[in-house]
Amino acid sequence: MKYLLMYCLLFFWSNLIFSQEKSEFDLSIKISIKNIFDDIRNDSLTLAWKKTLIKHEEFSQKGNLKGILEVMNCQGKILSITGNMTATIECYLKSLDLIERSDSLIVSKDFISWIQHYKGLVHANIGNCYIELLEYEKGISYYNKATLTFQNTPISNSITDSLISMHVATTYASRAGAYMAIEKIDSVESNISMMYRISDSSLVYPLNSFICITQSNILLYKKEYKKALDMIETAIELDSINRDMVRLSHNKMQKAKLLYLNGDEKQSVALFNECLTQFQSNEIKLAPSRVCLSQLYDIYLAKKDSITALTYLIRLNEINDTLNAINNQTKIESIFLVQEFRTLELDLARGKKEARLKEDKNKLKSALIGVSFILILLVILFIGHQMRKRFKRKIASGKKEIAYSSTQLVSKNEVINSTISKLETHLSDFSESDNVQLKSLLNDLKGEIKNEDFWDDFAIRFKDVDPGFHEKLISLPNPLTKSEIRLCTFIKLNFSTKEISNITKQSVNSINVAKYRLKSKLELDKNQTIESYFVNL
């Protein structure tokens, strides 16, 4: 009886888990989950686990909470198939903890509904794991949490009222099975009645079949064999209509047992043998075959038909040995699978660490290149600054030298002019022959003042000191004469009108007239002085 109930229980939740892929997810999540479930169905658990690790990392980087939770649900399913219920429970508890820590991210109504529904499924799955571990009280406590969570789930576009009702009913069925296993009949009947109350219409298959099976077991427990047989007949009829051959075969075994208890030994044996014939052709159905053989052995042993009983006992022992070998092999494979899962996780973690180290190395390399570039740029700027300072000092030194030479020239010319004036004043004091010599000397002195060699040398030296200034003068729209260029140079050197007059041996008035003409030629504004123009040129 317990075997049948546990089978129905796990069968319900197996269907429920796989049906999740039909929900309305984001497209990327839907495709990812479908690929993983395809691998699970094809028994490619290692490949499925590897995909869950990759998708978990991908969804984590995107901050996709729904994707992460769906992947963790797949991991729980894979671990449950390996038979490691403790690891399965741990996986589901981690998903619940993630939901609690991500509460601030759950804002939209649809997402709140989806999360609440997901929590209900996780609680129910944890309950299934504890039932598998035969820890019925813990399993029932998680079924209670699942029921409460489902009932508090708000309706949304993807989580409909009918979907919630179906899951609540399934949870009641699972809880009824757990109570049946610990023979709490009142609690079983209470859960069955609650299943009927959640919907006005009759419950859909396979829940209605499960109710018939559970009620049959309750009647069996109460030794009301005839009523129990009627209920199992109803379940068999439902299984036949829905073409559920697995459930049909198991319910036929229950019927065979009830036929024997009702005194119809012949039909019971015939039905057990029919089931046995169906089971023995399928290696997966060794466990139900064992149930049939055990029942047949008990029947013939009670009849004191030792030879037939021994025949069934031998076959029973063979199946027991085969199942024990399969169980041992499964445990070994489960250990290797879990170890392989851990290796995949370590490889992924190692890959992430190496990628992070490589990224840090590249960042450091980029930083060093950046710093080196900045240092080189600073050195270039420093060298350029020093060169500009040196050039400015050279220009300033050259200008000072030219200014000094010009000042010396002014002084020399002033002395010569003074000497010429004095000599011309005293020419009458000399004899006629001396006057001729003095006049010749005075002419030589006057020629010295107007020596063009000095001006050529002056122009060359100023070009060396400030070549750009001469270039700018030549490129002006209105061409300048040689004397105008010379005047521009004196103004650039910040000489006063009087100083220019002494150097050029022209009157102050002539210099002012020349400045005015130069300003007109340069087309300067009335408010702008010619001195300020050349300072900025």
How would you explain this protein's 3D organization?
Among the domains are: 1-204, Serine Threonine Protein Phosphatase 5, Tetratricopeptide repeat; 451-537, Arc Repressor Mutant, subunit A. Residues 1-25 have low confidence and may be disordered. It has 537 residues and is mainly α. It has 22 helices and no strands. α5 runs antiparallel to α6, α13 (265-280) runs antiparallel to α14 and α14 (286-302) packs antiparallel against α15 (306-425). It is rod-shaped, with a radius of gyration of 55 Å.
Short description:
The chain is mostly helical. The protein has 22 helices and no strands.
CATH homologous superfamily (4th level) name of the domain at 1-204: Tetratricopeptide repeat domain
Average pLDDT number = 80
Number of strands: 0
Number of helices, where a helix is a run of at least 4 consecutive DSSP H or I residues? 22
Oligomer: single chain
Q: Helix and strand succession?
A: HHHHHHHHHHHHHHHHHHHHHH
Instruction: Give the helix proportion (percent range).
Output: over 70%
Largest sheet: none
Give the CA-CA distance, first to last residue: 111 Å
What is the architecture of the domain at 1-204 at the second tier of CATH?
Alpha Horseshoe
Q: Tell me the structural class.
A: mainly alpha
Features:
single chain, mainly alpha, Serine Threonine Protein Phosphatase 5, Tetratricopeptide repeat, Arc Repressor Mutant, subunit A
Walk me through the topology.
Layout: H1 2-19, H2 27-41, H3 45-62, H4 65-82, H5 85-101, H6 109-132, H7 136-151, H8 161-181, H9 185-197, H10 207-221, H11 225-241, H12 245-261, H13 265-280, H14 286-302, H15 306-425, H16 432-449, H17 452-465, H18 467-474, H19 482-492, H20 497-504, H21 508-522, H22 530-535
Helix pairs in contact: 1-6, 1-8, 2-3, 2-4, 3-4, 3-15, 4-5, 5-6, 6-7, 6-8, 7-8, 8-9, 8-10, 9-10, 10-11, 11-12, 12-13, 12-14, 13-14, 14-15, 15-16, 15-17, 15-20, 17-18, 20-21
